[in-house]
Amino acid sequence: MTICHSKLDKRIEAMNAVTDAESFFGYPHGTLSSSSRKREFIDARMVLFYHINRNIGLSTLEAGRVLGRNHATCIHAVKTFLDLYDVDADFKQYADDLLAAIGSDLFEQRVDFIEHRIQSLYNRIREYEEMKQRIQTIAL
């Protein structure tokens, strides 16, 4: 997978994530888009909404459409995901396993980008400090 740029690419990536999740669990195609309220499907949808919204970058409206839901459902799912992920070790393991199956390289790419950006900022701070010292030396 690669980081998606166009809205169409993101939507295709999201639909692939849903298909990958259904394959990961051995569910028939369309199961996670069904109206079932079984806990196992709800948890999988919650992780998918998080992934589609935060990692792939689709809006909550578009993420909801991928799974046949509305934007409010997506917003609630992402909030619930973040709450559970921090406090429930079993859910955290479940989510990590599913995210690894459907797109861990996207996450890795974003982490690498953020680490690179942080390093760039540290370098700029170091350059400014050196410049400040040179100016102070000249001023004396």
CATH structural fold name of the domain at 7-103: Chromosomal Replication Initiator Protein Dnaa, Chain: A
Cα gyration radius (Å): 20 Å
One letter per element, helices H and strands E, the order comes to: HHHHH
Structural class: mainly alpha
Cα shape: elongated
Q: Which residues sit in consecutive blocks of at least 5 with pLDDT less than 50?
A: none
CATH class of the domain at 7-103: Mainly Alpha
Proportion of β residues? under 5%
> CATH architecture of the domain at 7-103, please?
Orthogonal Bundle
Distance between the termini: 56 Å
What number is the mean pLDDT? 88
The helix count comes to 5
Percent in helix: over 70%
Number of strands: 0
Main beta-sheet annotation:
none
The CATH superfamily name of the domain at 7-103 is DnaA protein, C-terminal DNA-binding domain
Tags for this model:
mainly alpha, Chromosomal Replication Initiator Protein Dnaa, Chain: A, elongated, 0% strand, 5 helices, 140 residues
Model description:
By secondary structure, the protein is mostly helical. It has a domain at 7-103: Chromosomal Replication Initiator Protein Dnaa, Chain: A (Orthogonal Bundle), CATH 1.10.1750.10. Helices cover 80% and strands 0% of the residues. The protein contains five helices and no strands. It has helices spanning 7-25, 39-56, 60-66, 71-87, 89-139. α1 (7-25) packs across α5, α2 (39-56) packs across α4 and α3 packs across α4 (71-87). The protein is elongated. The model has no long low-confidence stretch (mean pLDDT 88).
What is the fold's blueprint, element by element?
Elements: H1 7-25, H2 39-56, H3 60-66, H4 71-87, H5 89-139
Helix pairs in contact: 1-2, 1-5, 2-4, 2-5, 3-4, 4-5
